[in-house]
Amino acid sequence: MTDTLDLIALVLILAGALLCLTAAVGLLRFRDVGSRLHAATKPQILGLLLICLAIALALESWPVVAFLVPVMLLQMATAPLSAHMIARQAHRNRTIDERDLLVDELAEQERTPPAAGG
């Protein structure tokens, strides 16, 4: 049974490393902010989750799982929030191509004064 778990852990680590590599390549290759944010958050989080799962399977220890669960939860909570803040700042700096946006809710908020109630 240990050999099977080690093989599954190896496959998970390789898949997670491949996802992390694609996230890094995406950050270097993509040109606009939106594509870079997509590359920085989605494959990176999934890669980390796969690697943490592989570590938990390989070590077969509850203290390790208790350590890895908060790591995964914090990563899932902070990566989307930081991507949202970066995208919002890029919109305010006008570095996002507005032709690529289907709906621009921030532009609507900028046109409506805060005290107007809308």
Automatic annotation (TrEMBL):
Q: Does the keyword Transmembrane helix apply?
A: yes
- Which organism is the protein's source? Microbacterium invictum
**Where are the membrane-spanning stretches?**
6-28, 40-59
Q: Which protein are we looking at?
A: Monovalent cation/H(+) antiporter subunit G
In terms of Pfam families, this protein maps to: PhaG_MnhG_YufB (PF03334)
- State the InterPro entries in the record: PhaG_MnhG_YufB
Q: Which family does it belong to?
A: Belongs to the CPA3 antiporters (TC 2.A.63) subunit G family.
Q: What keywords would UniProt list here?
A: Membrane, Transmembrane, Transmembrane helix
